[in-house]
Design a protein that fits this description.
Strand content: 15-25%
Radius of gyration: 22 Å
Number of helices: 11
CATH superfamily of the largest domain: PurM-like C-terminal domain
Shape: globular
Largest sheet: 6 strands, mixed
Distance between the termini: 79 Å
Low-confidence stretches: none
CATH class of the largest domain: Alpha Beta
Helix content: 25-40%
CATH architecture of the largest domain: Alpha-Beta Complex
Mean pLDDT: 91
Number of strands: 14
CATH topology of the largest domain: Phosphoribosyl-aminoimidazole Synthetase, Chain A, domain 2
Number of domains: 2
Oligomer: single chain
Length: 358
């Protein structure tokens, strides 16, 4: 055997993985995870798997489970540079649960994955705090997660987050393209800002080309650039579920990467076309700033950013009034932005017309 006397053996800690710091992070995050629960959750944090009592699904005639997974992309770079870690979790939850609710599914639970270059316990706990708070806003439970330390692959301050969620919908209440009819109204639901898409373009334009810093006060925004870019993604799940209870809804579309036209097209059936009038709303100033600072053409902005619309609801005309009233009662801005008509052969499924108001 090799001689080891007088030498220091290798260890996990020497390789850069701090188990004690990881344990402290778990201790700090426990109080937040406890707040993100539902009656169906069995046990608590610390097990090898999260448990959810599926007998709750017995009330369904034919329950369909929906699943989604996502991350928040390069928006994590803004959080890292700002040193603000308790909002990025809201983004993560929004990106996952609002994909679930598009088909009419109620989000039940989520799990998260946090990858770091070095475990800073308070930082990891702040990220989980944001995820737990987002789950509360979404009405789902946070049943488990993983924090992985990857020294040598990520810098000491680098991190990334991802999550997966599960929801349930009654089969005969499944929403989607097959429900949409000629004459349906297209209701736009406002976003809270950039949400969590397009940050590679935004960072390139504002940092690399324009040379702006996160601390820059921007009069058009009424706050610093960093505060604007870190604005959390709006979580629509409870608003959308409320809409399905008060109004007839044929489909939702979550406006994420690819912009309004590409995402709405995913729920427009063959033979029909959704026409959306830009003149029905004014995008928030951040969208115009990105366009002007980078001389980005409107078509490029629209296929990258949400332009002020985070979710679309397609409803029959007779449901428009109650749908708008429901959203207004919940403090969510919404308006009729277009309608569904017959589609001519060779035409696009979604057409944006007119110019933005203001």
């Amino acid at each position: 055997m090799p001689e080891t006397t007088g030498t220091t053996g290798a260890s996990y800690a020497a390789a850069g993985v701090d188990i004690e710091a990881g344990d402290r992070a778990v201790t700090l995050m426990k109080e937040w995870v406890r707040k993100a629960t539902r009656p169906e959750v069995v046990g608590g944090i610390g097990g090898f798997a999260g448990l959810f009592d599926a007998s709750a699904l017995k009330r369904y005639e034919r329950p369909l489970l929906a699943s989604a997974t996502d991350g928040v992309g390069t928006k994590v770079d803004i959080a890292r540079r700002m040193g603000v870690y308790d909002t990025i979790g809201h983004d993560l939850v929004g990106m996952v649960v609002d994909d679930l609710v598009v088909c009419g599914a109620e989000p039940l639970f989520m799990t998260d994955y946090i990858c770091v270059g070095k475990v800073h316990p308070e930082r990891v706990a702040a990220i989980v705090k944001g995820i737990a708070e987002g789950c509360v806003l979404a009405g789902c439970a946070l049943v488990g997660g993983e924090t992985a330390e990857h020294p040598g692959l990520l810098g000491p301050d680098d991190f990334d987050v991802a999550g997966a969620g599960t929801g349930v919908v009654e089969a005969d209440r499944l929403l989607g393209a097959e429900r949409i009819r000629t004459g349906d109204a297209v209701i736009a639901i406002e976003s809270s800002g950039l949400h969590s898409n397009g940050y590679s373009l935004v960072r390139h334009v504002l940092f690399d080309r324009a040379g702006w810093g996160l601390e820059r006060e921007v009069p058009e925004l009424g706050r610093t650039l960093g505060e604007e870019l870190l604005e959390p993604t709006r979580i629509y799940s409870l608003d959308c579920l409320a809409l399905t209870r008060t109004a007839e809804v044929h489909a939702f579309s979550h406006i994420t990467g690819g912009g309004l036209a590409n995402n709405l097209a995913r729920v427009v059936p063959d033979g029909l076309r959704a026409t959306v009038d830009r003149a029905t709303w004014t995008p928030a100033p951040i969208f115009g700033l990105v366009g002007a600072a980078g001389q980005v053409e409107r078509a490029e902005l629209e296929k990258t950013l949400n332009m002020g619309v985070g979710m679309i609801a397609v409803v029959p005309q007779e449901s428009v009034e109650v749908a708008l009233a429901t959203l207004a009662d919940r403090g969510v801005g919404a308006w009729v932005a277009g309608e569904v008509t017959a589609r001519e052969s060779g035409a696009a499924a979604v057409e944006l017309v007119g110019d933005y108001a203001g």
